[in-house]
Design brief:
Order of helices and strands: HH
Low-confidence stretches: none
Number of strands: 0
Distance between the termini: 60 Å
Number of domains: 1
Strand content: under 5%
Shape: elongated
Structural class: mainly alpha
Helix content: 25-40%
Oligomer: single chain
Largest sheet: none
Length: 94
């Protein structure tokens, strides 16, 4: 995997902040051993042998970004509750 500079944000995600949060949470899952939902090229060592899956956040971060870009990660939007009866009390500094 090479360095990336442009990221495609899917319409379902809707904004950059949510994209970063979802990708970050997925990166954590991958680091803990979750199975990737996209094809992953395992890095080779100096002898040309496949290494065990690295624990580096940079490696799994790129995998997570690709999974979110391709729409393979499901997420839920939290329900926002609006309260009509909010009482604001000024704070006294005396």
């Amino acid at each position: 995997m090479g360095q990336r500079t442009v990221v495609h944000i899917p319409d379902e995600v809707a904004n950059k902040y949510r994209f970063v949060v979802v990708s970050g949470k997925r990166c954590e899952q991958l680091q803990r051993g979750a199975f990737p939902k996209v094809e992953v090229q395992v890095p080779m060592n100096k002898l040309g042998q496949a290494q065990e899956a690295p624990r580096l956040a940079s490696f799994w971060g790129q995998v997570a970004i690709r999974e979110v870009e391709e729409g393979r990660i499901a997420f839920e939007e939290p329900e926002v509750i609006v309260l009509d009866n909010i009482l604001e009390v000024p704070i006294s500094v005396e």
